[in-house]
Amino acid sequence: MRVLFTPYPSVAHLLPIVPLAWAFQSAGHEVRVASHAGFMPQIAATGLTPVPLGDPDSHEARLRDDARRPAEAAEVLRYADVMGLDAVEREHWITFYQYLLNPIADYVRTDLPECADLVAFARAWKPDLVLWDELFYAGPVAAAASGAAHARFMLGPDEIAWSVDRLEEHAAELVAAGLSANPLADVMRPIAEIYGLEVDRELMLGQWTLDPMPERFGPPTTEKVVRMRYEPYSGAQTVPAWLNEPPRRPRVALTLGESTRRFVPGDWDRTPKILEAVAGLDIEVIATLNSLQLQGLESIPDNVVVVDWLPLTQLLPTCSAIIHHGGMGTFAASRAFRVPQLVCDTEESVLMRQEKVEAPTYTIGREFGVREETEVETTQWIVPAKKLEATWTSEYVITNHAGARLNHRTLTVEEIGKLILQVAGEGVYQDGANDIYETWLATPAPAQVVKIFEGLVSFRKGR
Q1: Does 2-229+443-462 match 241-349+384-441 in CATH topology?
Q2: What does pTM read for this prediction?
Q3: Which pLDDT tens digits describe the chain residue by residue (463 residues)?
Q4: How do the domains of the chain map onto residue ranges?
Q5: Long-range CB contacts (< 8 A, 24+ apart) of 437-445?
Q6: Per the CATH hierarchy, to which homologous superfamily does domain 2-229+443-462 belong?
Q7: Would you state the CATH architecture of domain 241-349+384-441?
């Protein structure tokens, strides 16, 4: 088969697909990975064959001044009221409507060339299967336009399909209230019409959904799901010599995410408080933090070693615990290496609001180290001080006794230090980490998933 992967142009979206892409390639299939032209070096570094989309000298769509902005809070909540969503369901809806629709819109724009380039490539190369990132909606357009089978590759809780289910249930009420029956369809329709495609459920959600998350990790949906073991992959890098020596005291990893290290100066107020909490504890902390995350910090404790970047696949086998932001890649790697987890989660709503502040945490057109100046007035959007999926992650590790929630907004410095020692030292957390490892191990590996898709695509062709 010919298999085309279409990741959103972010390292956090690329790394999770690499083990599966290599599994297809190792099984004798042809593999290509298509994304924004500026992202080609990162794809090539994985050993996979990249396909450039758009102008290599242009900023990717999210870094443009005219990128889609978040919906106003009042509009988001009006939808929730009409659909009668409870408090928990509102969080799913907010994540979809106020956050995820923004990057989804990036690569189905009719005024940018990336989607047209992908369709042209797919029509010429003729893939049998397109595996598209849940946020890269040029993928299903190209698949449908070229006649390929296609599936979404999930990177977290499926709040997109959950929201589509709710929109379908309440379509009549939404229209009666003067609201769109399906905002996702609205985003896709202009580009779909160019290729004569109907924006139906299959175009929005794929023919199948490939989900590397644990079962019941996210809201329930009606989608046809293929489960896969989330194999940790964090790139190739020479192992530092000091990692080959066993730690002299319990080692704790501290990592707070690939996204916030590019967008949020000072990492809200988490980093200073956590580092103050570990100072003087009888542990060694390896903190993979960059200068932006350390901004405003006066000093580093003696028992903390700061490394700008270190693959978790190298660090975690030496650790007794990990403190992290709740991201899917970090959660999955910790699970695969049986490491107890402290998940940073403030438990607050993910609703984004506009406020008068000096340093917004959501700014159109800016990424530190790439494009720090914008040509438009700064939008003063404030996001909650946590990863969107952090509550899902923290609930999972707590429920399975594999770790604890670290709420830096409610816990004192002393309470945080005590919690870290408990998770790193008490056997119940290691037992829980071992248990969730066993469920991970029992999930189909990428090589097995290749066999599943060989059968699905063959069956579809034979219908």
Answers
A1: yes
A2: 0.95
A3: 999 999 999 999 999 999 999 999 999 999 999 999 999 999 999 999 999 999 999 989 998 989 999 999 999 999 999 999 999 999 999 999 999 999 999 999 999 999 999 999 999 999 999 999 999 999 999 999 999 999 999 999 999 999 999 999 999 999 999 999 999 999 999 999 999 999 999 999 999 999 999 988 999 999 999 999 999 999 989 999 999 999 999 999 999 987 777 777 778 889 999 999 999 999 999 999 988 888 878 899 999 999 999 999 999 999 999 999 999 999 999 999 999 999 999 989 999 998 877 777 887 887 777 777 776 565 678 888 899 999 999 999 999 999 999 999 999 999 999 999 999 999 999 999 999 999 999 999 999 999 999 999 998 887 6
A4: 2-229+443-462, 241-349+384-441
A5: 437/335, 437/336, 437/337, 437/338, 439/214, 440/214, 440/229, 440/230, 440/332, 440/335, 440/336, 441/229, 443/214, 443/227, 443/228, 443/229, 444/227, 444/228, 444/229, 445/23, 445/228, 445/229, 445/231
A6: Glycogen Phosphorylase B; (3.40.50.2000)
A7: 3-Layer(aba) Sandwich (3.40)
